[in-house]
Write a structure and sequence with these properties.
single chain, 188 residues, mainly beta, ten-stranded mixed beta sheet, four-stranded antiparallel beta sheet, 2 helices, 14 strands, disordered N terminus
Length: 188
């Protein structure tokens, strides 16, 4: 069992809180619920100053009679135990969970990741509470009164913004006149 201090938990419409993770399932589908991430890992260019919020987007497909109850997301940390990223659910996903009827699908932002200018570049794919475990989205799939806690692995790749390099055409405009001047120089 993982440390619950690293699990951001939200109470779903059924009222169950996801605080225990079933280790047997790490895919994105359980019976009639499928969660697909649009980009995994999500690549984010670290800002040079301040911070930015990047959204992890995807699709939640829910079969008739099925619903998502309690859900949570684990904070992430770099593989080597570096910085932990703050991960929160997007407002639109929270609205979907609180207002959706069983069987309603959702497409859009699932959760948001805050990246600051001081965030260390690298792949953030580990559970901050237990670096041997992957970062996971946790949810409970309900078919009427029966529920099962499920997980979906995800990752965020933070890259540093490199120095601006001139485009090839600009480089040619700068270099060719110099070459021309050197070629016109009188020979001795």
């Amino acid at each position: 069992m993982r440390s619950s201090s690293f699990l951001r938990t939200v109470i779903g419409p059924v009222g169950l809180v996801a605080s225990v993770i079933a280790p047997a399932f790490t895919g994105g589908a359980f019976a009639q619920i499928t969660i697909t991430l649009d980009q995994n890992p999500l690549t984010v260019v670290r800002p040079q100053s301040g911070s930015l919020v990047a959204s992890i987007t995807g699709t939640v497909s829910v079969g008739t009679g099925w619903a998502i109850g309690g859900f949570g997301v684990l904070d992430q940390a770099a593989n080597g135990g570096g910085d932990a990223l703050v991960v929160d659910f997007s407002e639109s996903f929270l609205n979907y969970i609180s207002l959706a009827s069983p069987g309603d699908d959702y497409t859009g932002s699932l959760f948001d990741v805050t990246v600051t200018a001081s965030t260390t570049p690298g792949l953030y794919d580990r559970d901050a509470g237990n670096l041997s475990e992957p970062a996971q989205f946790v949810y409970t799939a309900f078919d009427g009164p029966n529920g099962s806690v499920q997980t979906l692995d995800y990752a965020v790749n933070i890259v540093a913004m490199g120095a601006a390099a001139p485009e090839p055409g600009t480089l040619a405009l700068l270099v060719l006149p110099t070459v021309g001047l050197l070629a016109r120089r009188p020979r001795r």
